[in-house]
Amino acid sequence: MTTTDRLRLLDDHVFLVDDAPPAEPSISFSRLKGPKQVTDLHLVDLAARHNAVLATMDGRMVQALTSEDRRHIELIPL
After folding, report:
1. Which of 7, 20, 60, 69 fits 65 for a cystine, CB–CB 3.0-4.6 Å?
2. pTM for the model
């Protein structure tokens, strides 16, 4: 079983429908540095719209967020 499979088995795992319009983010994109961060910030925005927390192993995502928006992300240590 992969790590992703184990994460999906957690009780608090949910699937979110991608209904967040990219042109109207609910989080700040002010720290966006390049095109590689667009998807990352969109996923955080999706979590924020659903009052959820995005779990990620990518520590670079935290750097792209304002301190206020960091509450929508949980960094999973490797």
Report:
1. 69
2. 0.82
CA 2 to chain CA centroid, nearest Å: 20
Instruction: Please calculate the CA angle 42-51-69 and round it to the nearest 5 degrees.
Output: 55
| Positive or negative: CA dihedral 77, 54, 61, 71 | negative
* pLDDT tens sequence across 11-21: 888 888 998 88
- 7 Cβ contact partners less than 8 Å away, ≥ 6 residues apart: 13, 55
Please give the angle made by the CA atoms of 64, 36 and 47, to the nearest 5 degrees: 55
Q: Which ranges of 1-78 does DSSP label H, i.e. alpha helix?
A: 3-8, 38-49, 60-63
Which pair of tokens denotes residue 54?
A: 């995005």
Cα separation, 30 vs 27, whole angstroms: 9
